[in-house]
Amino acid sequence: MAADLNHDGSRVTPGRLMLYALLVLVALYYLAPLYVMLTTSVKTLDQIRDGNLLDFPLAPTTAAWGKAWSQACTGVRCEGLAPYFWNSVRMAIPAVLISSLIGSLNGYVLAHWRFPGHNAVFTALMVGCFIPFQVVILPMARLLGMAELANTTSGLVVVHIIYGIAFTTLFFRNYYVTVPEELVNAARIDGAGFFMIYRRIIFPLSLPIFMVCFIWQFTQIWNDFLFGVVFGGSDAQPVTVALNNLVNTSTGVTEYNVNMAAAIIAALPTLLIYLVAGKYFVRGLTAGAVKG
């Protein structure tokens, strides 16, 4: 009986073939832009001008990648994307780590150290998740000016930490409510305090949700353009702003291969993170979906 069920379950039916064909078509549809970007980035300008957009490179070359990284003009400066790429790294890593840690502590408090008005605080944080970027530009600019952090990488780090705390707190709070209250109460009876419980019980259980916050925050911060162009000075602009400047800087001939290489360089960190840690993102989201 079991063998028959296994055999029937693995049988290829017309419906399953249609499903697979549809999935393949959808995958090709979504991968087509990436294919065009990759192939164009290794083509020569002559082939780009004379050939078809979907043509395979006849003489692949990485010269466009080298120029996009270190020589392409982004306005009046012709240093490529490299300085701005490292600006994004210096901005994203501390902002991701600090906002995730603060969100973890906030979620821990809201889930297991409830105080009068904690529901109102949680509601306010949820509202904060839906505040548009444009609404916080003016007050954030005044805050950075008062703190003398305007037009600096440190200022961008502060901006992303403040804006991301609402999201990370929401993620951690919803995850920590699945931790049994009895476990926390038993630790209190044994004399453990706030930080002892967090360090010995809560934090070791938090790897899945930390991965969710790391991936979410890194993606949001790395891909941000508005905060970078408003709060980043000429020496602190992230790679997204530099990419926009590179594409819109004309030196007589539009170098599509350089533009495509630059776009892939700018998107590469987030692509790699999803390829390497995407399964942890889904696992972390589902880990806190069911209480108990």
From TrEMBL:
Xref: SUPFAM superfamilies: MetI-like
Membrane topology: Multi-pass membrane protein
Entry annotated with the keyword Transport: yes
Domain ABC transmembrane type-1 stretches: 85-277
Pfam family name, one: BPD_transp_1
Any one annotated GO CC term: plasma membrane
One GO term of the biological process aspect: transmembrane transport
PROSITE patterns: ABC_TM1 (PS50928)
Keywords tagged on the record: Membrane, Transmembrane, Transmembrane helix, Transport
Protein localization: Cell membrane
Transmembrane feature ranges: 17-38, 91-110, 122-144, 156-176, 197-218, 256-277
Similarity annotation: Belongs to the binding-protein-dependent transport system permease family.
Protein name per its UniProtKB record: ABC transporter permease subunit
